[in-house]
Amino acid sequence: MTKTGFLSLIAVSVVMASCGRMHNLKEVKLNGMAQGTYYAITYYDEEGRNFQPAIDSFFRAFDMSASVYLKESVISRFNNNDSTAVADDAFTYVFKKAQEVSEMTDGAFDITTMPLTNAWGFGFTDAMKLSQEQVDSILPLVNYRNISLENGRLIKADPAIMIDYNAIAQGYSADLIGKMLETEGIKNYLIDVGGEVLARGAKPGGKLWRVGIEKPAGEGDETRTVDVVVKLKDKALASSGNYRRYFVKDGVKYSHTIDPKTGYPVTHSLLSVSVLADDCISADAFATAFMVMGVEKSRDFLSKHPGLEAHFIFSDAQGTNQHWTSPGLEKLFEDNNAE
Q: φ, ψ for residue 50 (rounded to 5)?
């Protein structure tokens, strides 16, 4: 797909219905599977139009850009050193945003961790414990500064470098679906793609969108329960956690979040973080970065970047869950604000 072709798909994939406009907004709820997870979308439209076919078409096109699980996707072709692969608009935007967040977080966020993700068993291989020698042999491949995008081509310092958009692409897909709906005049919607949420406008009567932040589970298969409820308007909220994707080897718990500098899964006490931002791609990327950075470094980062807010759940020395929330997000908790 050409660079212009991707966004053109978004612009023309939904055709305006010809029937007359109605005075009362109708609620439309859509659900489906995409990107290896679920999506749930609610919006209000005077005509009650169903955009699910266009949204499903969008996800298929997006996967052909950003999914490492499709052999013919742009990202897979780059990872396999296909010299004919060319970045489309979606790939390019995500790449630039990823590099920006990497620079801002001093490499805590890094899309080149794919070789380590695979080696630890959180990608295409089975879970395994690596020796220090194995980690050291892979680490030279992990550094966001060793890749660049030039004229639509991914330039690597080493052909063995591989990239992964899993920590940022879902957020961007929510942003793009939002733009699709807005093109059709939809101003009030809530988009949830695998837990990455984008809210615009409000419900009829001005009621704000309500989004739950999950309480960390003790085991990976425990029932999901809500920790706090956030009321959103014109914001995005994305979460990342270490309590569902992990494995235990020789009595040691290895989480799926890899520290790009050490090459090992993170070992600090942070269990989950939810980030509030203006767009979902930013919320998604910084949630992953903060999982690597830990509570104290993340709090320091937040103090210098007022456009971001966060809610942290972490365990103390006794193993009891504790919370810290930035003031801007705390005031959006359900008990702290009115409709």
A: -105, 110
